[in-house]
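Lesson 9: reading folded outputs for more than one chain in a single document. The general rule is that every protein is listed as its sequence immediately followed by its structure tokens, and records are never interleaved. Here is the first one.
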Amino acid sequence: MKHLSVIILVFLFLSCNRDTSKKMLHGMYLGQLDVNGQEHIPFNFEVTSDKALKIFNADEVILVNDITYKNDSVYIKMPVFEGYIVVKLTEDGMIGSFFNESFGSRLPFKAFYNSNARFKLTDPAATDVSGSWEVLFSADSDEKKYLAKGVFEQKGQKVTGTFQTKTGDYRYLEGVVNDNQLKLSTFDGSHAYLFVATVTDSTMSGTFFSGNTYAEPFEAKRNDLFELPDANTLTFLKEGYKRLEFSFPQADSTMVSLNDPQFKDKVVVVQIMGTWCPNCLDETKYFSEYYNNNSDKDIEFVALAFEYAKTEAKAFKSIAELKNRIGIEYPILLAQYGTSNKIDAQKKLPMLNHILSYPTTIFIDKTGKVRKIHTGFSGPATGKDYIDFKNEFESFIDELLAE
């Protein structure tokens, strides 16, 4: 009788502690983030195990492996970025919300199982948008308008590409042309974008949707000769300043400055960035790879992080996650937290005329002189411009190392 009581107690203990929550079905899904209750930002993902999935945007594959189950909810934490999705599982997929607390945003989310059509293919494409486009966003607002370069490749009805601005690009966009309607979208774990336009052989007219309520008009004309302003001329040292100076902390509270021995007689690349910034992530991946492959040379990198996170502890946690995820060996210092406001950021580096973009890259020679400042970053989604950036970067570094 005593043994039976023990068995019953063990059974009850195991029953009470058994995970009865449903698990995600493995396979392809179509995810949708709702914008203003009318438009949906679609993206594709594949659940590969109970605790891992992959998000797809054109050539980009994002591995998500921080997934937990609690009661009847699934918590999906995005890699590197602060955003996360909370869902309940349904018969045909998932329903919940995407949150980004630092941005103060919440987007309703749905996912449909066994579906991989980002946009439905209906009428045959009436035109081919492949090539370069001169784009003007917010043409009717003198304060908000800005130029961009659209670069697209169309195969049948399917389209990939991106919009480049003088401060960076909108990364991997994927979509379709149905008749004369172009639709492109992306979701990278931080930002969710949708572009919808009416197109002809030589023009576009459409709207850019982002976040909860953001909607911005744009117009474009085909122009294979169009180029954005030279990214090496937009940010510079103000008159009266000859050097870049700063002193910011690492996670262990150690203050780091360019006067430290590790930078003496070295070429130094200073990266102004944020862990929340997708363009910065693209640049950081390239810089980290370059740094690791050239550790035998007289070159050092140091990143200055300007963080949305509301507390210093959260900011350093985001930095640690980025370093661990990518395998970054160079220091990332916390320059600012609680906001990424560029005016506030410029106050931390008063020798610069402005901080126009995250990222911004500052090249310093072995004598400590600032030799070039590059605003923005043309990431891998830009194709040729990304290759050109890497070639220019490596050639210029070689010149500085040879001096």
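And here is the second record, again sequence then tokens.
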Amino acid sequence: MNQSLAFGRMPSSTVENYLKAILRLSDEVAEGALVPVGKIATALSLTPGTVTTMMKHLGKEGYLDYLPRKGVVLTDAGRKAAVQVLRRHRLIELFLVEVMHLDWAHVHEEAEVLEHVLSDRLVERIDEMLGRPAHDPHGDPIPDAKGVMREDQLKNLSECGPGKYQLVRVTRDEPEFLSWLQSQGLRPGIGIDVVNRDPLAGIVEIRVDESKAAIRIGEAVAGVLGVGNSTK
């Protein structure tokens, strides 16, 4: 085992940001496939040269396997570290909403800072205080203390025909977008009735939480709304 990992040295905030980005991008490629360096650079708004240098460093540290001109894949140690960052981030977001009463549209940036400074003991206490929650305010699954993350069987609202569904997850986190969704009554947990879907026009007509008034949203918006079967 790499010496730095053997002695349990905590990764820096920069390393954690890289690992978290690679973990997220790993979900966008086939299982076990390499994540291209270009995708990592785009996700972190960095140059490919800067990312390549860091990939070589993280490879030596034992967090990932780097294949020049092909990409990277997280090792077990790298994935474990990335999942723990993700766990801290999502628990912090929920804590800020549920306890501190911050708007869900503005907790992402706060969590980006706090995820690097909270101790494991404090994160565990937050998890306990919140009742071991399964999802963050945006509907993303929260890994448990062992790094296990539940898999929700969801589909995008843009793919749904007429019928009743429950909004489970929002996969865009821009504050302006989340504020707009909230103004339309669209937050995880809410019921959605798809009245009509027009693929040619790129429009989905919905009613929110059995409202009488229908609203029309574009498929670009519907495409970032993950839904499951209605519980009603």
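What the second record shows: The first strand starts at residue 64 and ends at 67.
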